[in-house]
Amino acid sequence: xxMLTYGLPADATDEYIRIGESTxxxxxxxxxxxxxxxxxxxxxxxxxxxxxxxLLAMGEKKGFPGMLGSIDCMxxxxxxxxxxxxxxxxxHVEKPTIILEAVASEDLWIWHAFFGMPGSHNDINVLHRSPxxxxxxxxxxPEVKYSVNGHDYNMGYYLADGIYPDWATLxxxxxxxxxxxxxxxxxxxxxxxxxxxxxxxxxxxxxxIVRGPARPWDIETLALIMRACVIxxxxxxxxxxxxxxxxxxxxxxxxxxxxxHGRAARSLDEYIEAHRQIRDKDxxxxxxxxxxxxxxxxxxxxxxx
Length: 305
Description:
- This protein has helices at 2-6, 14-17, 21-43, 49-61, 86-89, 123-129, 134-138, 180-206, 219-240, 268-278, 281-297; strands at residues 67-77, 97-104, 110-118, 143-144, 146-148, 151-153, 157-160, 170-172, 257-258.
- The chain is of the alpha/beta class.
- It has a 5-stranded mixed β-sheet, sandwiched between helices.
- Strand 5 (146-148) and strand 6 form a beta hairpin.
- Helix 3 (21-43) packs across helix 9 and helix 8 crosses helix 11 (281-297).
- The longest helix has 27 residues, at 180-206.
- The protein is elongated, with a radius of gyration of 21 Å.
- The N and C termini lie far apart (53 Å).
- 35% of the residues are buried.
- Mean pLDDT is 88; it is low at 243-253.
């Protein structure tokens, strides 16, 4: 735990536990492997019906109906990257890095963590290889239904920065907003999207091992360490209570979430059509315009402009 939380090197632990460096590293690997094996299904699960209802309620509270969280990537520097792999793991950062793609909610719960892509990739490459939308395309995710500005939608979305593609399941800011409506939307989207940046910051402050350069030599151990830290981060979030009002009950949006169980498995044509809907640019544009109007119409200081 001292190696995880303080980022101590393995040979620094022999001062108080009297074991060698190799034994400390093996103990660390076995500990994080056990954490991942035992708690992965509970603390790195995809949202079920209750989770989706809570996520939708938090999105509605911030002015974004249908929002399931915020998505972004974090680079973890790899100090002991083998020389023959450094070209693969170097990108815009000078040092070799490994990418963590995560989705976080307002309460800092990280329910999606995709780790292991080389640092030479960007967020778009990572998204194309990520299993984030697999459950949605295969019909295993709870179906989300909501209405914005008079238009009905059946897929939740995530707030993202400008590099992400124009998909129906992603809502980005406006780079150069013109007019009060679009300026207010850009300001609201950028403020709400910071929830994933906050989650990265809290994760790194709690586990210094993922803030400093990674020392293990193999990618498998690094993946176990990152997943174990995310799992323990979610444990702390659950134990300390969600950062939203604990007296809130989110039954109001329960009718907008349809359980995934009971639906027949999708055929190949249905699977392809689901992927087409996820990547539909027209829906992306329409959803953004509807959210611009929705946020402006619900702006508390509307008449001050």
